[in-house]
Amino acid sequence: MTTVTEILKGKPEAVTHTISPGASVFEAVKLMALKNIGALLVVEAGKVVGIVTERDYARKIALLERVSKDTPVSEIMSSPVMYVHPQQTCEECMALMTENRLRHLPVISAGELVGLISIGDLVKDIISQQRFIIEQLEHYIAGDLA
User: Fold this and answer.
1) What is the distance between the alpha carbons of residues 44 and 18, in angstroms, rounded to a whole number?
2) What angle do CA 134, 2, 83 make, to 5 degrees?
3) How far apart are CA 12 and CA 135, in angstroms?
4) What is the pLDDT of residues 88-135, one digit of tens each?
């Protein structure tokens, strides 16, 4: 079973982008667009205090006709944040995301933020595992096991 540590190692960019709770929602959306990401962890004094997503913007700013430049991230972020540990499995993360309708999970180790995994990261890992199993079965069926 793949662990969160292995998933993080497979990601092209280890940096997790963050924003402060006092920053404007406009700044958050601008950073998400610049980095081509769908969520930012909200960090204060080195601790994760929330998460803000494109969905938060759509539902809590756009639909309510609020002004993103005048609204602090703290007013629309989700808090508290569910998180996982590096030793947890892909399957455990997928169950947590499915059960709680989440798309992103921060990874915390010894109280420190070490990364962020998305549903896309988990799906990519599952597809990779299935592809490997299929290839092994094809070799077995063809009789060319080394």
Assistant:
1) 10
2) 140
3) 25
4) 999 999 999 999 999 999 999 998 899 999 999 999 888 888 888 888
Token couple for 33 = 């667009």
Kindly report the CATH number that applies to the domain delimited by 4-142.
Answer: 3.10.580.10
Q: What is the Cα Rg of the chain in Å?
A: 18
- Strands 104-109 and 112-118: what pairing? antiparallel
Contact 77, 71 (CB under 8 A): no
Tokens for 1, please give them.
């079973």
Distance CA 139, CA 75 (A): 55
C-alpha–C-alpha distance, residues 16 and 39, integer Å: 10
Cα separation of 53 and 55, whole Å? 5
User: Strands 47-53 and 39-44, how do they pair?
Assistant: antiparallel
Residues in the chain: 146
The rounded distance, in Å, linking the Cα atoms of 84 and 62 is 30
